[in-house]
Amino acid sequence: MKKEKTAKKGFKMPHVYVIIFAILLLATILTWVIPAGTYDFIEVNGKSVVDPATFHYIERTPVSLWEMVLSIPEGMVKQASLIIATFIITGAINSLFSLISFRSYFELMSV
Question: CA–CA distance from 90 to each of 11, 68, 79, 111 (Å)?
Fold first, then answer.
């Protein structure tokens, strides 16, 4: 007789894009649920700070599903310089680590 192993089905982590999309969808839904409000600012010692006693509600501006979809490329356009800088810096670091002498130096220092 052979003993059959029963496979346990455990939690499998969803893909990172699924997690990001779920957070984006939740934030979009919350714009319809949570009321909009703001505080007034006051000057204290030359700095603009929030006055905690001045909260008031403002007109809601809920985000539609189409606006949610369009917010992704709009955000990428607004932060293009940061995205490009990240790519360049990451490429430079990967190029440095591909050099054997540079990698061996860090391996030597980590011991």
Answer: 32, 29, 17, 25
Residue partners of 68: CB distance under 8 A and separation at least 6: 24, 25, 28
Q: How many CA atoms does the CB half-sphere of 32 hold within 13 Å?
A: 8
User: pTM for this structure?
Assistant: 0.61
Q: Hey, which bits of the chain come out as E strands?
A: 37-38, 41-44, 47-50, 56-57
CB 39 within 8 A of CB 58: no
Per-residue pLDDT reduced to its tens digit, 92-111: 988 877 776 766 777 777 76
- Integer Cα distance of 35 and 60 in angstroms: 7
DSSP class per residue in 65-95: HHHHHHHHHHHHHHTHHHHHHHHHHHHHHHH
pLDDT in tens, 69-81: 999 999 999 999 9
